[in-house]
Design brief:
alpha/beta, Dihydrodipicolinate Reductase, domain 2, 9-stranded mixed sheet, 10 helices, 20% strand, binds NADPH dihydro-nicotinamide-adenine-dinucleotide phosphate
């Protein structure tokens, strides 16, 4: 009797015999493994830090995307990554010379995973080198910069995507499906709680020059983006209040805790919290006239867990970054349309909202939004 393991071993053996890259072999899908011989997105990662490392590891399991290059300011990291991921010398760059990407036909896209305030210039330089770009969130530190990035990518005829990994997460997508199908009825309320206790006071996340702000830029953005994809509308007003208990650690312009509220055109409201001073805050709750949906945890690396008024959500756990990069390969190479957009315009809306939240904190007034 042939087991699934026999089949996979046989298939892997044949592929090795044929010298087909393991990157071209799909992960399991409904218990069947099928070789993938479609187009491959060749990716260079810029910024070999903590999240860049996570993305690189996750990409080992991608079928449509492959890590082929690096851009880094740290020569020792470049050496390590070359050895670990088999990256040729000709695909290695630093922050001074990466404009030379324009002469490299073996890289399709650069994934920018550096501190927030650096994204704008780096993305624009990559676009000018004629490569597609994926920027990490937040795309930039304000809407004006975000618009410049979009314009530069349009001018260069390259795609600009943003690392919104939750847009591909199965339990999240199931709630969006239910809401669209009317299974929750008219949506009335969203609550998004996003935060963690941040450590080392010397890290770039607490340096306004590099971070562009505080918890809102880093983690509050999940509640902003989540409110939009869970409710399925863009907010038309925002109010916000800041609390700062540790001004020593959270200096001028670096927010510690902000509560914010949105109003939506369909009548729903949202109430959210963004903080760098509390743990156990990673929860989304969506309430409609006919039912509710809850994710807790909602945006961590997983497993995401959740339930709705119809019962537990049982969609399988996936490695977010693996699925994200495979889906982004489909978007860039084949023009696929994701359920929730991950392009520059989508990210610009979040930046406009962040600008408005900071304005509401400063003025104490309700700020109208036109997204
Ligand atoms: P790290 O500090 O771990 O890494 C950032 C890397 O950027 C550094 O290791 C360095 O790499 C490079 N870099 C270039 N210039 C500087 C500079 N002036 N100061 C510090 N680092 C610099 O940060 P993260 O990886 O955690 O975050 C990077 C980005 O990814 C942020 O925008 C963040 O918001 C986003 N992120 C997204 C997550 C998600 O789930 N989508 C999760 C975590 C982060 P090198 O030495 O190679 O030059």
């Amino acid at each position: 009797m042939h087991t699934r393991r026999d089949f996979i071993q046989k298939l892997t053996g044949s592929l090795i015999a044929l010298q087909i890259s393991p990157a071209l072999v799909t992960a399991g899908c409904n218990n069947i493994i099928v070789p993938y011989d479609g187009p491959l997105l060749r990716v260079a990662i810029m910024g070999l830090g903590s999240y860049g490392t996570r993305v690189a590891e996750a990409m080992k399991d991608c079928k449509k995307a492959k890590l082929v290059g690096v851009i880094s300011g740290t020569p020792s990291k470049i050496k390590d990554w070359q050895a670990k991921y088999n990256i040729p010398e000709k695909n290695c760059y630093n922050y001074e010379n990466f404009d030379q990407l324009k002469n490299n036909p073996d890289i399709d896209v650069v994934y920018v995973i550096t501190p927030n305030a650096l994204h704008k210039d780096q993305v624009i330089r990559v676009a000018k080198a004629g490569k597609h770009v994926i920027s990490e969130k937040p795309m930039s530190i304000n809407a004006k910069d975000g618009q410049e990035m979009i314009d530069a990518c349009k001018k260069a005829h390259v795609k600009l995507l943003v690392g919104y990994r939750m847009h591909f997460e199965p339990k999240t997508l199931e709630i969006i499906r239910m809401r669209k199908a009317g299974e929750l009825g008219k949506v009335l309320f969203f609550q998004g709680l996003c935060g963690f206790t941040i450590g080392d006071p010397t890290q770039w996340r607490l340096n306004k020059q590099l971070s562009g702000g505080g918890s809102m830029m880093d983690i509050g953005i999940y509640a902003i983006n989540g409110a939009r994809y869970m409710i399925g509308e863009d907010p038309i007003w925002v109010t916000a209040q800041e609390t700062k208990n540790n001004p020593e650690k959270f200096k001028e312009g670096v927010d510690e805790t902000i509560q914010f509220q949105f109003g939506f055109p369909g009548g729903a409201v949202a109430s959210c919290l963004s903080t760098y001073s509390m743990n156990n805050l990673d929860r989304f709750f969506l309430n409609g006239e006919k039912g509710y949906a809850e994710l807790y945890p909602s945006t961590g690396y997983g497993p995401i867990q959740g339930r709705t008024s119809k019962g537990e959500l049982t969609q399988p756990h996936v490695t977010h970054q693996t699925v994200q990069m495979d889906e982004m390969a489909g978007i860039i190479l084949e023009g696929k349309q994701p359920v929730v957009p991950v392009d520059g315009e989508e990210a610009l809306k979040d930046l406009k909202i962040i600008d408005a939240i900071y304005e509401a904190v400063k003025t104490g007034k309700k700020v109208d939004l036109k997204l």
